[in-house]
Design brief:
With 328 residues, this protein is of the alpha+beta class. Helices cover 36% and strands 30% of the residues. The termini are far apart. This is Ferric-dicitrate binding protein FerR, regulates iron transport through sigma-19.
């Protein structure tokens, strides 16, 4: 019975589970239906956790008259103890105001606790944040990271990522058992214990590069993928395409030092990188240039330097028009 309560609480603290209950996105629906198929003994816990979250959500928007009357009665008892002659004239206005204030404070507390913590970077910005468990996350430009405001020591640590980030996950144990750290993207769930890895969710796919430790990927269709240091795994839930290869992780995390590394990157791919990094769309006018490539490492905080390097490397002209770069 105790294990059942622990599982219910774990589900309620899971950010992806909360999102499924509150919004019912197709990807989350598929994931949790698959999860219940694989764990039929947990269906009761799932239903109980769903009901509890919905009750909590309802409580943040609804206050019953009975609750209000109860607050008023308690306040009146305190006011009755006052000896001020004007007490009877001001008691009810004060009681009503105090009750309203108390109710609003209660609602505000619930809303605050249920609202995820969110970090967001602008184009060209890199930000390092510390999570409640001591893990460190470095967010690349134009990225978002969110997590539940309250983390329990004995349940999975869950964050959601859009964009790109490098994770340095602290190792946590409870009762001698490791506590998982889970990163949820639109395509996959990344499950780790304590490790360092890079995640990129741009271009409608999720790319994971493992620098150290061990990572397990859980795809929406129930497939699991194990990663070792030096592995790169890329998956798109839309195309159902999975690739895995060995790489040098340092080439994929140079952005943390405000550097851009290119290894035979085509001009078409470079245009996408510029748009993701600096927020400026790129149009390659001459189609014969699209597959020409560039290699090297340059400062990431100097777009003009990058554009000059492109001019010299490809012998092209670059024109600015309405915040769009035209390459010809």
């Amino acid at each position: 019975m105790e294990d059942h309560h622990v599982q219910v609480e774990a589900l309620m603290m899971d950010q992806r589970f909360q999102r499924w209950v509150q919004h019912g996105a197709p990807a989350d629906e598929a994931f949790w239906q698959q999860w219940m198929t694989q764990h039929p003994d947990q269906r009761e816990a799932v239903q109980e956790a769903r009901k509890a979250i919905r009750r909590m959500a309802l409580r943040t928007t609804t206050v019953t008259s009975a609750e209000t009357e109860q607050q008023l009665a308690q306040l009146n008892k305190r006011l009755d103890a006052l000896s001020t002659p004007t007490r009877t004239l001001i008691r009810w206005p004060i009681a009503v105001a105090a009750a309203i204030t108390l109710v609003l404070m209660t609602l505000g507390g619930w809303v605050f606790l249920l609202t995820p913590v969110r970090y967001e970077t602008a184009y060209g910005e890199i930000q390092t944040v510390s999570l409640p468990d001591g893990s460190i996350v470095t967010l690349n430009s134009h990225s978002q990271l969110s997590h539940a405001r309250l983390w329990r020591d004995d349940t999975s640590r869950n964050v959601t990522l859009e964009g790109e980030a490098f994770f340095q996950v602290s190792h946590q144990e409870q009762a001698g058992r490791p506590v998982k750290f889970i990163v949820t993207t639109p395509d996959i769930q990344i499950q780790v214990i304590g490790t360092e890895f890079n995640v990129n969710t741009r271009r409608k796919r999720t790319q994971v590069v493992l620098e150290s430790g061990h990572v397990e990927l859980a795809l929406a269709n129930g497939t699991g993928v194990a990663m070792q240091p030096g592995d790169l795994v890329e998956y798109s839930s839309q195309q159902q395409a999975l690739t895995k290869q060995a790489v040098n992780p340092q080439d994929f995390i140079r952005w943390r030092d405000h550097m851009l590394h290119f290894d035979h990157v085509t001009l078409a791919e470079l245009g996408k990188i510029i748009e993701e990094k600096y927020g400026q769309p790129v149009v390659v006018i001459d189609s014969t240039l699209r597959q020409r490539n560039i290699s090297g490492t340059i400062p990431a905080d100097d777009l003009e330097f990058l554009l000059e390097a492109c001019k010299e490397t490809f012998g092209i002209q670059i024109q600015h028009h309405n915040d769009t770069l035209f390459l010809r």
